[in-house]
Amino acid sequence: MVKKILIVEDESDLIKLLKYNLEKEGFRVSYATDGSIALAEVRRDPPDVVILDLMLPGLDGLEVCRQLRRSDKFSRIPVLMLSARSEEADRIVGLELGADDYVTKPFSMREVVARVRALLRRNEQAGPQKSKLQRGDIMIDPMAHSVMVSGRTVELSALEFRLLHHLASHPGMVFSRDQLLDSVWGNDRTVTPRSVDVYIRRVREKIENQPQQPIYVQTVHGVGYRFAVNGDE
Ligand code: CA
How far is the CA of 55 from the centre of ligand 1 (A)? Predict the structure, then answer.
């Protein structure tokens, strides 16, 4: 899958240079010229890596970084900070709410590309969402995008899979329909909260022995849905 890089920088020459070189390496690239636009762009179309200049008009790079880190949805996006001063950048990478790595200006494009690739690798390896989940009779494998129930493979659409995986990743946690739309559907909001019910029903028909009396995907009346804590209770 093509990885998306968001460049946050106010110098147009530098944006052009970064964009050209990253696209040449096969990345999809978008850019923002200040911190607020950057945060809006992250929400609109979340990137796989953010290249973030420290000195920006309005919200500075550090504040953008803090806001990303505090967000549930976007806190895992790696941030490569651009800075004119290495002492400053050192400090920011060391902070709890700081960046993952930095390069100091002036930098070579080869170095930026290498750092971006390293961050992508690190994030993929760290991804807890990539490990298999065993819940009762159900085995969910995010790498293979497959689900087995009692050893039998069941076919789920991409959305059904994401919905089941999200619920099963947080057993016992109740999600409202709106929360599920945010986490599972993301920016594709052509659906209404009631569509969630339709997808829940489809998932149940595929994984539950008795879809009318679900064991795994439970309804919490007046609130939403949750995945059973111990799978077979
Ligand atoms: Ca700048």
Answer: 4
